[in-house]
Structures are given as structure tokens and as C-alpha cells.
Write a structure and sequence with these properties.
six-stranded parallel β-sheet; alpha/beta; globular; single chain
Length: about 200
């Protein structure tokens, strides 16, 4: 089984911040954590590393995030792509990267080939109101796809995301990456896989 993606920084089981990438006062901690997680990457060999931004706001946070992502991307192990995933404010209050347009601005400012957008249908639907349109609009920056329904992050078909349209849009797009299921099943997982095509 291939390991496709891990999050950074490594978990803080004492309840600490969910990332430091956008915190102007957290630059040293961010860099320490990234060098540590790169050691994990060398052993586990994931394809993607989701870099969490932490709680912040304002232009200083934006500039800090761009600087930190560029620093990390320039030092990333070969074959690794750093991803940025917008998280909706209801699920992650105060999280800096809470909008797909903002994520696109960061990626464009970093301007390195090993940095891309992590699309999540649950967050896209909650943030922008249309997961399908959001996928289409940001397709050129998407390097990894996750699916979950909204508003409760359940399996496809449990909420308001139009998965028939989304899967058709993904199939018709020039997207050749992985699609990960990231949702709360609410039942044994195998009972929630009706959306998954069988041969």
C-alpha cells in the first residue's frame, strides 16, 4: 500500500497549534518542524506533504506563509510536493488559509513547481457554496483531491455536494492524481462505498 499524503507539522498531542507556517512569530518553530518532518518523509516516502498554516490573519501572515512555503519547498526531499488546503472557518476557527482564492494567491507568489493546491470537496462546498465550480476554477493548481460531503463531512450522498457532477468533472479534466476519501463514515466504511465504481 502506498502512503500518499501526511500532514505537517507532526502531531502535537498536548493540544498545541495546528501549524505555524503563517505565524510571523513562529518562523523558527516552523522551520524546526519542517526539518523534522522531512526526516519522516525520507523514511515513509509520501507523495504529498500538507503544510498546515495555523491561526493568523492579515498581510504579515500572508507574507510569512509565502516566505516559509518557499523556504520549505526549496529544501523538500526529491519527489515530494507540498500542498496547501483551505479549511473552512466553522471546522477550524481562526485558521489562516480559509479560502481557495487566498490559497491560489499564495501558490502563485511562491511560484515553485513542488507546491500545489489540495482540494477537498467538503471544505470547498462550505467555503464557496459549490464544490464542482470550485474544482473547475482551481483545476490548474490542484495536485491532490479529497472527497467528503457537506455540511457534516459524511460520505458522498449524505449531504448537498453534487458528486455525480463532481466525478464527471474530475473525469473530464486533465487531473491524473489521487482521489482520497476523507469523511466520517457513521457506519462501517464498506457500507458507505456506494459512490465507488466497481469493475
Amino acid at each position: 500500500m502506498k502512503l500518499i499524503l501526511i500532514n505537517a507539522p507532526p502531531p502535537n498531542y498536548t493540544g498545541g497549534a495546528r501549524g505555524f507556517a503563517a505565524l510571523p512569530e513562529g518562523r523558527d518553530r516552523f522551520r524546526y518542524d519542517m526539518m523534522r518532518v522531512f526526516r519522516y518523509v525520507e523514511v515513509l516516502r509520501p507523495r504529498f506533504l500538507h503544510v498546515m498554516t495555523g491561526e493568523a490573519e492579515g498581510e504579515a501572515a500572508f507574507e510569512t506563509l509565502v516566505e516559509n512555503i518557499r523556504w520549505a519547498a526549496e529544501r523538500a526531499p526529491e519527489g515530494l510536493t507540498l500542498t496547501l488546503e483551505p479549511l473552512n472557518p466553522g471546522s477550524m476557527p481562526g485558521y489562516f488559509l480559509n479560502d481557495y482564492d487566498l490559497a491560489a494567491r499564495v501558490i502563485e507568489a511562491v511560484a515553485l513547481p513542488n507546491v500545489g493546491l489540495q482540494y477537498d470537496s467538503f471544505h470547498a462546498q462550505v467555503i464557496h457554496g459549490d464544490a464542482v465550480e470550485t474544482f473547475s476554477r482551481f483545476l490548474d493548481k490542484i495536485v491532490h483531491v479529497q472527497i467528503g460531503d457537506a455540511p457534516d463531512r459524511g460520505p458522498p450522498g449524505s449531504g448537498v455536494v453534487d458528486f455525480e457532477a463532481l466525478f464527471a468533472t474530475i473525469a473530464g479534466a486533465d487531473y491524473k492524481g489521487w482521489i482520497s476519501a476523507e469523511y466520517h463514515p457513521g457506519a462501517p466504511t464498506e457500507e458507505t462505498l456506494e459512490w465507488f465504481p466497481r469493475p
